Every structure is written in structure tokens, then in C-alpha cells.
Amino acid sequence: MREQDFGLFTEIYDHAERKQKFPDEFEKWARLRSTSGKFYARPPDGESRADVAQRVRLFLQTVMNDLTKAENDLVIVGHGVTNRAFEMNFLRHTVDWFERSDNPGNSDVTLIEPAQQGGHRAVLLHKARDRMPGDNELRDAHGSQLTIAPKAGQ
């Protein structure tokens, strides 16, 4: 799935650089983030996190409608904000959960599976190498049931 479109801010990761290159647009975006929250603030000519969540929700509805009642495994590859939006939609987390959670690392693998108590849960199967040892931000995300499963044979 495609990552969030950052519009004018695409490939500019530093706020100071964004402000320098697009001062008026940056100030308007910063005000929106301050008043409406990061989830709803749309970068100039881009998508807000809410836009991404809506796009992912439509994708998820299509996928769920296309699946049959038989056992199906589905692999979905995405990027940080998009993966968080997918998990938020599928597990019915709140916007607050989204804002408190961090993007998964590059090459993280998360399994969403049925939970024993009903519903579904997310399990982090592979933690990317760009995470520091002991970095439990995914496990500690508000409202999350993420766990790290040991590799086979360990």
C-alpha cells in the first residue's frame, strides 16, 4: 500500500527545512496541527493521516469483501503511516492509539491473527535491524497487544 502523500513536504524530513522552503505553507500546516491535531492536519497538496486512514479503510473493505469463507492468508506490504492506519482500522483502535504509536521500522513484520479472547491481535514477528535492542516502543504502544514471538528453535 502506498505511503502518505506529504505534498510539498515530500522528501523534506526536517521541519526547519520545510519552514525555510515553504514558510507560508509551513505556518498554516503548523497551525492546523496545533488546533486540529496531527491526525487531521493535511500538508499542503498532500494527505492527512486521516486521509490515509480513510484510503486504507476502503482498501480493507475491498479485501474483506473479496475474501471467501475458506482459510485465507493475506500479505500486505506498506509503509509506516499506512501500516499504522491499517492496524488502527483492522483492530478498531482509536485516533488516540494512532497518535501514541510509532511507525513500524523498515522491514518489520507484523502478523494480525485471531485472539483467544475474541477479535484479533497484532504480533510483531520480525523486528527490523534499524531498531535498537531493548526498544519496546511497539510493545508499549497505548492500547496495543503487540508481543515479540521468539524465532523457531530459540
Keywords, separated by commas or semicolons:
mainly alpha, elongated, single chain, two-stranded antiparallel ribbon, 154 residues, 2 strands
Enumerate how many helices there are, as a single number: 5
Annotation, overall tally of beta strands: 2
Q: Classify the beta-strand content into a percent band.
A: 5-15%
Q: How confident is the prediction overall: mean pLDDT? A: 83
- Helix % is 25-40%
* Inertia-based shape: elongated
Order of helices and strands: HHHHHEE
Major sheet summary line: 2 strands, antiparallel
Helix/strand class: mainly alpha
- The termini sit apart by 33 Å
Q: Name the poorly predicted regions.
A: 141-148
Cα-atom Rg, whole angstroms? 17 Å
Question: How do the strands line up in the largest sheet?
Answer: 1-2
Commentary on this structure:
Strands 1-2 form a two-stranded antiparallel ribbon. A hairpin with a 5-residue loop joins strand 1 (109-114) and strand 2. By secondary structure, the protein is mainly alpha-helical. It has five helices and two strands; from the N terminus they run αααααββ. Helix content is 36%, strand content 8%. The chain starts with 14 loop residues before the first helix and ends in a 28-residue tail after the last strand. The chain has a domain at 73-154.
